[in-house]
Structure formats: C-alpha cells, structure tokens
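Consider one such protein record:
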Amino acid sequence: MNPTSAIPCDVLIIGGALSGAATATLILEKNPTLSVYIVEKNPHFSRRVGEATVEISTYFLTHSLGLTDFLNETQLVKNGLRFWFFNKETHSLPECSEIGGKYLSRVPAFLVDRAVLDEEVLSRAVKAGARLLRPAQVKNVSLNPGSLQEVEVEQEGVVRTFQPRWVVDASGVAAMLARKNRWWKSNDRHPTTAVWSRWKNVKSFNDPALATKYPEWAKKCFGIRGTATNHLMGEGWWAWWIALKGGDVSIGITFDQRIVDWPEEGSVGDRLKTFLCQHPVARELLADASYTPGDIHLRKNLPYYSEQIIGDGFSLVGDAAGFIDPFYSPGMDWISFTATITANLIAAERAGMDVTQKITMANASLVKSYHRWFEGIYLNKYFYFGHYDLTKVAFLLDLGFYYQGVANQPFMRGEPALLESVFSTKPSVPFFHLMRFYNRRLAAMGRRRLEEKSPAPANKGKCFMFGGFTFKRSDVSPIVKALFLWLGLELSEGWKTWFRSSAESQTPMVPAAVDQSML
C-alpha cells in the first residue's frame, strides 16, 4: 500500500473492552484534541470471568472513570470476602468452617457483569471522542520505536493501514503484541486451570428457608453473606461464588494441576457440578441449580506475562500485559495501573515532553510489579487453600497489608497512586519480602499436611467473623494478631519443614483424585 494513503492518528487501541476503553477515556480526558481509534473485533461483548472488583479497581471505576451512579444502578454492591472449608466430618453447610465479615463492608466494591460494564465504558469512550471501528480486526502491527507505528485493520472485507504514533494493546488473553514479538511467556511456576459458568436457580445464602433450617448459623453474620465474593475452599483448589444483578450466579473453580486431578469424562458442566458438590455448601445451594448451556468455559495454564510492557510507541494494558490468578480479583487492579500509566505517558509525549526516561522506568516498574505480585502472594498458595487455620492467617495478613499499603493510597493521594503499581516502589520492598516469606512458610506447612493426608480438623465447626479493615494507620491489630497466629503455627508444626531444601519443596506432587466418599 502506498504510505501516503495510510490514515494518520495519535493512538490506535486494539480491543474495546474495559482496559482499552478506559485507556482511551483517560487519554482523551487529558487531551480531547487527540485522534484516538479503538478497534473492537466483537459486535457485542460476551460475559467474562472477571466479575468482582476490589478497592483499587473500585476507586479506578468510580473516581477515574466516573462510574459510581452506573455501578449503583446496574450492579450489586459487594460485601467483602467469605471462605468456606470442609473435611470428611462436615456434612452440612453450618458445619463448614467459615471466615468472613460480621458486618457490611466499609470501603465500596462491586459484583459486576463484565459484558454490561465493558459496553458502558466503551460507549463513554466514544462520547469522549474516540472513533470506534466495530466489528473490525487488526491483521498486523509493525512497531517502529520512536516513530509512527503501522497497523493493518480489516473491516467489512476492506483492509486499511493506520499510522498511529502509539499502539495500545488491550486485546486481553490474545496478547497480540506480546505473542507477535515473542515477549509472551507462560508462568510455568503456577500451573493452574479454571472452569466456570453462569448458573440459574441457585439457592441464596440469604434464603429465609436456610435461616429457618439453620437458625444459629444465620445469627452469626450481621451482614449479607450472599453478596460477598464467597469462596469454597478445597485441597489445591478454590471456587468462586458471585451473585449477579438479575439473578444469575457466576460459579467456577481454579485448581493447581500439581495437586488436583480434574475428571476427564463427561460434559464440562457436569464435571464442574460433580466436583463442586464435594463441598457441603455447594451440595446445599446447587441442589436445584443448572449451568447455562453454551456458557461453560475451561482454560488451562492460566498465568502468563510479557517481558516487555511499554516502549516508545506502544503499551500493553490489562490482560494483554499479563495475568496471575483470579484469587483476590487482581485483574482489574492491573487494568487500573496499566491504563493510568499508559494514558499519562501518551498524554505527556503528545504534549511534546521528552518521555524517554519515563518509558524506561514505567516498563521496568510494571515488569517488576508482576513478578513481585506473583511471588509475594500467589506462588504455591494452593498448597494451603484447603486448610482453615493456614488460610485465616494468610487472609488477615494479605488483606491487612493490601489495605494499609495499597488500597488506601489512591483514596488519600488520588491519581498519582495509580502511577505506582504494586510492589514497584522502594518503600514496598520490605513488605514484599515479608509477604513472600509468610506465604512461603504457609505453603510449606500446607504441602506437608497434603503429603501426610492431614484430616484438617479446623475445617469443621470454626467461625471467624471480623469487623473489617479501614485505612486508619491505627487499625493494624488484625495484622498483629495474625502474626502471632503464624508464630504459633511455626512452633507447633512449621519447624518440621524448616530444614527442607528449596529443591525438595518445589518438587511436583502427584495429583490426588477426587475422594468419591465426599460426594
């Protein structure tokens, strides 16, 4: 094609879902005169697995994108996290050990239908001035650092060439730029698989019949159990249980392939229901439920990352830059950081600033953030997921440090906090090392219990209801208590793993088959 026939523009964004549309909105907010194109291949968005926000992503959606009224009108308010544990001695819902808030959450978050959210954010980006090509598909991208990029876009059978100064890859798990340029790497240290669907006729945690059937259980919680992100916990796996506006419930599992032997026979939906019904909570609430045909998903080897995230003329945002794990819902936090950093860099460069050093620093900090985020919180975490006492310690410490060091920052400092991704700044380094250490120790104890086939007695009859965290510096008592609980675990059993070699602790385990006696 003759270069003179190429269409010039400032920014071309590959993908119009949340990460791409949000980046476009932020860019145009800073400079409405820029020419921004969004290329979206789907005529409409399908439902996605990421359906719960946490504090950082809620700030981003409400403060940065101005979606507060929309979220309150169209989505459900989330009431924290809840965890349910079982063993061979638990036969009913109230016998399962429970961790969760006693009251409603103090900092807002939402349970969201991503298809609805994505459409809204994209429509707002268009209203802000972005030009939408939909349905259209990016056929090829040629990167020219420091110069104009070249992007071939096909729409209605016609291929046109665009020459943007910046290309933003928001293509999600397709990770177009990372794969094309061989930056994409599978995170083989975290071999996880997820299976999920939307369900109908799921019994609610708030069903009055349950309160009548289990009155003492119902009285333990003053909040709303059903609109929390509920987690069913098992050995090497966890399941999410997310109520959605309109009555559907998103339910799925994520498991460590080294620990869990996923059944291979039968339909994926039937296998999912059978597997979930190991757990008394699932047996109670899924008795009359059915999964939605055509909405069953299985994805192996979930985590991956890009060795390059930002360069002079391109940026990867959201899942296109990497994915760790759905536990704690970090995906939309990652969108918040990558989109904000990208928009600020592009706006500065288009304003004539020399951003060479900023690009280098932003790329280094985001790459570092991914790996520290993974190692500090997720590495080998699934080895202790099926144990109430170990998960309780991790939950209190993980959430406490998140509130005190991450989630509070944008509420206190505004947008500048979203320019500093998790564990990317010097003050965060000691906390990264501490979090990596206690998670490593809990994983070692959990692994030993799995090897010895521990009956996990704490999984029955325990109930920990806490008041919740705030952003007050003085509100650190749950962290202190959790540190003492951790010390107690080390003295009672952890010492038995102190002298294991690093190689031994990383040796893959043989997957354990589903215990049919627990179905």
Remarks:
- Confidence is low (pLDDT under 50) at residues 509-519.
- The first strand starts at residue 7 and ends at 14.
- The CA atoms of residues 192 and 257 lie 6 Å apart.
